[in-house]
Amino acid sequence: MTRKYNSYTAEFKLKIALEASKNEKTINQIASENGVSPSQVAEWKKTLLAEGSSLFQNKRTIKKTEAHEDVGTLQQQVDKLTVRIDWLKKKLGISS
To answer: 27-34 vs 10-21: helix axis angle to the nearest 10?
Structure first.
């Protein structure tokens, strides 16, 4: 017997998580009204509260973080290529 897993849209999850975060109803009430597991409702609420602030992050801050990651990656590539060039120069007997 195989178990069927439900797939919920992001909009549905957000709606349920927002309702749960209002604390007007219990998680069990929200779960039974929407046909989902109470543990799933609690998980969506926890995710919303933990990661919800990222929705309002300053876009400049996000771009700076991405730029720093790009610089690190590019520096690694430059280092690898420098090592290869030095190896090739040595192999071919070219002095710098």
So the answer is: 150
Q: What is the pLDDT of residue 96?
A: 60
Same domain assignment for residues 82 and 40: no
Q: Domain total for the chain?
A: 2
Residues 28 and 46 occupy one common structural domain: yes
C-alpha torsion 55→61→66→72, nearest 10:
-140
The overall pTM is greater than 0.90:
no
